[in-house]
């Protein structure tokens, strides 16, 4: 028993906390939440009672372009600000004008002979000059005079500065373009540096590669990019394209995304080899695990300029291109041995009647132009206009009967059909933007179909923001995510209360003007909803519902993320969830069209680079069941870490009452918590990687680092668990604990807080 003054007892210490987590609830006050719920979370997944950093999103090499493999046909002319054929500028850069030989030697392509010539520097009379190997090689040649495979004649300093090696001095010099008397000229930075020096690069990149094929240098005075190539008859010289171009470039030493896409779908061939079809501007791509991207041609002069709807129906893929353009169909060969084939315009199949000469036809019409359609019961249901549905013949997607195979949904209203969604073998749910209809008895000649209204209160905001999970259908409306459930009388009913109620404050961050781009999917017992938040015009965050814990997990996000579409396809021996990256500007522009596999690894793996996953958990408010101001004394945070950098803040219920209790805490993988255990050798020479009490068990290796597996082996993903004590100082009705982590990985198992009343109850001694 403690006493603060004579005859008066101190208040008894009280404990509160959480031992395990379910998810978050942002709607209620923090101190009103029950144990197991947090107030907010970002980039956190709740599994097995832990609140843990989400897994990474990993780009896959089979859905990216390698840096030097794809041809160039177009570039951007700064004076016209439109794409123009580069052959009008020079005759030398309509195809690759450079190559990297053996990964070490930079060569320029001759404008006339198509041979490659190595380029390097020499010092002549104190002046640094650019030289070319006069003995050119053709595309397939491997030998060259100037350098061999063991030596590099170029390098990229800090991934943005192109430098050549000075053969005479052994120093590296940066290449630029300068304008002399109006003519762009290749110039060399005279201040060379040795191999070990760095940090002498310009403020921005001094080179770029247009469409992975054309090497360009920047002219600092004009801020224009000029292609560099070799030319001449006899005496080989370096030339520049005199007409500069202004275009955002990418590093030629890194893979990039596949570029702008207009639609996507999963395709499985008759041999069950599955991949993803991506509709690009002038052709489609089939990408799949273990194979290079393969082109699927469009009909001649077909160029996409707007989104399209791709879908597989039996052994073919259909492309609906809007009301103004005829649909296309791709019918691949059975095993692709004779090529992939090409998309063709849909032609109406021959009439099926008893007339052997087909004189009179059968009264059917060609399937109409449309922007959207759905495959259901061996038919295609095509959305025409705002409220009309055209249904194809069974097993024949080219024709329909105008009299018996079309119907309208709530004709004359001001709403439109957003999505036709199959529910079971005889039922369709028709989502309009302001109401929902149920079409039942959908089979046979369609003579017995029935149209019922499920809801007139809300509709569907985005075509791809609807998912069936068991007997429930979840969809995004303008007031949140709602459900359609199977009632006891075996009828579907639309629930009037949104399931996003507990995360109402998160839904307030959605940029509803652009919510039509939202995407939803069900994967690994989670409902994932990609949304534009905080003013974004694209899906920069994913809202997560965990079916196992029956709670929301908050947003998953990243500064580079633009979820254009979710796709589930084969990866190895199982199906995995991917998303196609949409367009972005600035440093992430080159990611467009890349495919990212979700829930893989401890970092976000971008093409050519890794990005840390920053996460944050904000606990509920611990009030210790006392209606008075409390004086919190300490908190104990039970956590596991892997190469972390975390901070712990204590937040009271006042305005800006934040106590930065512990900041930027890291763990040293070479040190132990226990005194006297020495230092761990990161090469694992003592075969003791799993020795107890080490601060961190992560394994981080550079390209040339080595580590010994030993007899005991190594688990590079092992996390260390510890209790982090935190001293607290602020008073309040309740206290929240915020755990933030900037790198590596962290898992919070529980939090315990000790407090006592801040105002004592004075009782007179009897």
Supply the number of helical segments.
Answer: 1
| CATH architecture level-2 label of the domain at 3-54 and 615-757 | Sandwich
User: Uncertain runs with pLDDT below 50, 5 residues or more?
Assistant: 1-8, 67-94, 142-150, 198-202, 248-252, 760-766
Report strand %: 35-45%
Distance between the termini: 18 Å
Care to count the β-strands? 61
Helix content: under 10%
Global outline: flat
CATH C-level class of the domain at 3-54 and 615-757: Mainly Beta
Biggest sheet features: 6 strands, antiparallel
Q: What's the gyration radius in Å?
A: 32 Å
CATH topology of the domain at 3-54 and 615-757: Jelly Rolls
Q: Would you tell me the structural class of the helices and strands?
A: mainly beta
Q: Taking all residues together, what is the mean pLDDT?
A: 81
Question: Would you mind describing this structure in some detail?
Answer:
The chain is mostly beta strands. Among the domains are: 3-54 and 615-757, Sandwich (Jelly Rolls); 55-65 and 461-612, no CATH class; 66-240, no CATH class. 1% of the residues lie in helices and 42% in strands. The chain is built from 1 helix and 61 strands. The strands form 17 sheets. Strands 3, 7, 8, 56, 59 and 61 form a 6-stranded antiparallel sheet that branches. A 5-stranded antiparallel sheet has the order 6-55-60-57-58, with no helix packed on it. A hairpin with a 2-residue loop joins β43 and β44 (480-486). It starts with a strand and ends in a 9-residue tail after the last strand.
Q: Brief overview, please?
A:
With 766 residues, the chain is an all-beta fold. The protein has one helix and 61 strands.
